[in-house]
Amino acid sequence: MSELRRLLTGIGVSPGTAVGPLVIVSPPPLAPADEAPTTDPEAAAVKVRETLAAVAAGLTAKAAVADAHAKPILEAGAMMASDPGLAIAIDGKLQAGKGITNAVTAAVEEYCAMFESLGGYMAERVTDLKDVRDRTVARLLGQPEPGVPELSEPSILAAHDLAPAETATLNVETCLGIITAAGGPTSHTAILAAQLGIPAVVQAAGILEVPLSTIVAFDGGVGEIIVDPTDDDKVQLAERKARRAKALAGGTGKGATKDGHPVALLVNIGTADDARKAAVKDVEGVGLFRSEFLFLDRETAPTVAEQTATYIEVFEAFGDRRVVIRTLDAGADKPLAFADLGHEDNPALGRRGIRLGAIRTDLLDDQLEALAAAYKATGADVRVMAPMIATRQEARWFAEKVRAVGLPKVGVMIEVPAAALRAFDVLSEVDFASLGTNDLGQYTMAADRMQGELATLLDPWQPALLDIIAYACDGGARTGHPVGVCGEAGGDPALALVLVGMGSPACRWHRARFPAVRTALSLHDLVRCQQMAAAARAAQGPVEAKRIVLEMADKILLDLL
Question: What is the model's pLDDT at position 91?
Fold first, then answer.
């Protein structure tokens, strides 16, 4: 055995195995601590704007030739670099005498703090904003923009973290896998890696100390990393990869347990383009259409006609398959230029989602009118649900509005613990619910899901979160109204079994995860899933919960992770 061989562990976030030489992404240049103060703020401001414009132009050029995954991410970065508010904030730092790169850094730090306090969509944009900062500082220092180096051979990338713009543009032919020292299960790196089919591990302490070009083997399902693996290690990983491919080979068709209990496998989408691409895949419909993408980054709200045209396009793409659409999930965490409700001390817990809709009823009424028109034009299986519902009264108010325009099925998102605990009351007013496990987890554990250091608390196997989910599913069973799952939790083949065992009849996630979950379901009957759910809830922590379930499962399940 090699003297260099050692084991590292992290959090597996994208399944698959990889073996290859390690390429370490160099950290971006920092603003020099000894940088001279600015003596000509006006000239420095001009230079900053020119540099930001160059960064925006570079990202826009990349977006023009990027695929559907990368294009919107690169465009978002370009938009941030073009934000006049950021340039004005940098002006203030220059006027205060900071050196030019330190002014950029200080202004971006303030923006990041603001975005993180907003939570949700805005908090997820922090990584994009830091990427713009790093590119700008590098250009101001006369250095190349940071990023993934050109890979001359298939390699494994290691980094402190990867910006979405970097992850989205990776070539799956040369990038065998991703290992980061930071990040979390719901970070952009994790989600994009899964979408691209690249094995990935986050929160891998010690990976950046491994020498460049060292051969590394790892499993993106369980988070195990072998530095300088032996031939036996490589053989075992290769055998596992082959077993996984064999197990997934027959994973097509509708989702169901071994004894035929149906579990709908539904895709999450955000745009009409997403719909067109997902509709031709082996999916049973849309579990979550995030309609806010029609509203974001606009100075005025989309018209009823504009919305109707988009909804018709999405509904027609899926034919007679269901389409579950979430009404506008915006507000304090996704501020809109045309719906600014003013300052809030704690915006992440403020007037967002349905709370914004109750204040700006014109926005909600227009959206429901457009949805009703698209439904009447297509006859599609349309199901409309509201975000951030917390009480029975909110659910009743929303249901009355949906039914008043002639839409056939109304539901709610359960992402607030109050709604889960009182699910019987809430579901008595509507036809279905969908569990937003990402937000429900962070609210249950009081842990920001964008903060990688809290990844353990945000583990979807946390028994406390499973208890909250069970309350919601119990409310669904008592009312006879289904409670599905959306969020990354449903994409874990083992956890999907637990969720089905608690009573969830549908799972929603990115389509790349369908085969593994479909196969896992086919290996276990409903009673076994129910036994797994009980055992996981009785565990003392997330690691024990998952271990117990894997011990109870068919051994093939280990090859699906």
Answer: 94
Question: Tokens in use for 152?
Answer: 């001359």
Tell me which residues are annotated as active site: 188, 486
Contacts with 82 (C-beta within 8 Å, 6 or more apart), sequence order: 52, 53, 56
Question: Does the pLDDT at position 446 exceed 80?
Answer: yes
Q: Measuring CA to CA, which residue among 99, 419, 245, 436 is closest to residue 107?
A: 99
Q: 209 and 80 share a domain? A: no
Apex 102 CA angle, 101 and 103, nearest 5: 90
Kindly tell me the burial class for residue 47, based on how many C-beta atoms sit within 10 Å of its own C-beta (0-12, 13-18, 19 or more): middle
pLDDT of 123 higher than 60 = yes
For residue 257, tell me if it sits in a domain.
no
Q: Is residue 236 included in any domain, yes or no?
A: yes
Helix residue ranges, H only, 213-271: 231-248
CB burial string 201-230: b at 16+ within 10 A, e below: bbbbeebbebeeeebbbbbbbbbbbbbbbe
Residue 201 has pLDDT above 80, yes or no: yes
Strands (E), 235-338: 264-269, 285-290, 322-326
* Confidence (pTM): 0.74
CB 531 within 8 A of CB 501: yes
Q: Is the pLDDT of residue 510 over 60?
A: no
C-beta atoms surrounding 68 within 10 Å:
12
Contact at 8 Å (CB) between 207 and 8?
A: yes
316's CB contacts (< 8 A; 6+ apart) are: 378, 380
- Indicate the residue type of 421: L
End position of a domain, from candidates 225, 248, 271: 248
* Residue 317, pLDDT above cutoff 60: yes
Q: Provide the residue range defining the domain that includes 69.
A: 41-140
Task: Find how far residue 501's CA is from the centre of its chain.
Answer: 24
